[in-house]
């Protein structure tokens, strides 16, 4: 298969990286953030960037708590809230939404690292429970995906797992929902099955990590460790 025929896989990435105000804010609150666009404020690699974002949640207090957490972050500038447009179709989940502008340091962006290694951003980034959910297309060939992901992790000091992948030769989504769990430990299998049954792998998610951890009576950190390890085993192309 030629490079042109095998390139173009589409992936959904679950990602964490340090010094991110949105990750910090959503990890500490029940609100979520949708990242729409980011633009540099000046033609300089060291200039700050302006982004358009939407904070969302099930209640007004959840959204306000999330915005307060953004304001308190040392990695974020001043929030400038945007007036809601009459008749504008809401493009974020949640019962309550508030759109805002924010200026911050471009050195804390992970997008350039993803682009450098062939992952092209194709949709707004959704941040919930201290994790970012990226929809990307990969410009290389299928066997190059795993090395490229490892390079992103190394360069951005990030933690990345693959939620789903669609390759041009299959036209079907290979996701955690339909894979065998033989390779998992009992704890990993329980966590994975609980997450799947509760709608954690649906879009939008049917349950948050915090809620699922409470239902399973384990810590959020332990649950995430089980899920990430399980996903890594299940999605290993070998």
UniProtKB/TrEMBL annotation:
Q: Which organism is it from?
A: Haloarcula marismortui (strain ATCC 43049 / DSM 3752 / JCM 8966 / VKM B-1809) (Halobacterium marismortui)
Ranges for the HTH bat-type domain?
184-235
The keyword Transcription regulation is annotated on this UniProt entry? yes
Name listed for the protein in its UniProt record = Transcription regulator
The protein's matches in InterPro entries, at most eight in alphabetical order, are given as: HTH_bacterioopsin
**Keywords, ordered alphabetically:** Transcription, Transcription regulation
């Amino acid at each position: 298969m030629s490079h042109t025929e095998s390139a173009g896989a589409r992936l959904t990435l679950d990602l964490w990286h340090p010094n991110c105000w949105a990750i910090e804010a959503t990890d500490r609150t029940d609100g979520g953030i949708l990242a729409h666009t980011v633009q540099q404020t000046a033609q300089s690699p060291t200039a700050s960037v302006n982004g358009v974002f939407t904070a969302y949640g099930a209640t007004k207090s959840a959204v306000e708590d999330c915005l307060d957490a953004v304001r308190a972050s040392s990695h974020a500038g001043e929030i400038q809230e945007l007036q809601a447009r009459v008749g504008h179709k809401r493009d974020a989940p949640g019962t309550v939404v508030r759109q805002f502008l924010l200026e911050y340091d471009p050195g804390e962006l992970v997008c350039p690292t993803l682009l450098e290694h062939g992952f092209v951003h194709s949709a707004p980034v959704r941040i919930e429970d201290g994790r970012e959910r990226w929809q990307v297309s990969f410009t290389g060939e299928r066997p190059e995906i795993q090395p490229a992901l490892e390079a992103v992790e190394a360069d951005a000091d990030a933690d990345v797992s693959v939620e789903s992948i669609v390759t041009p030769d299959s036209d079907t989504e290979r996701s955690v929902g339909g894979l065998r769990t033989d390779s998992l430990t009992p704890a990993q299998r329980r966590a994975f099955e609980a997450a799947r049954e509760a709608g954690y792998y649906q879009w939008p998610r049917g349950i948050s990590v915090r809620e699922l951890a409470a239902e399973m009576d384990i810590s959020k950190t332990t649950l995430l460790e089980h899920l990430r390890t399980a996903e890594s085993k299940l999605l290993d192309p070998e």
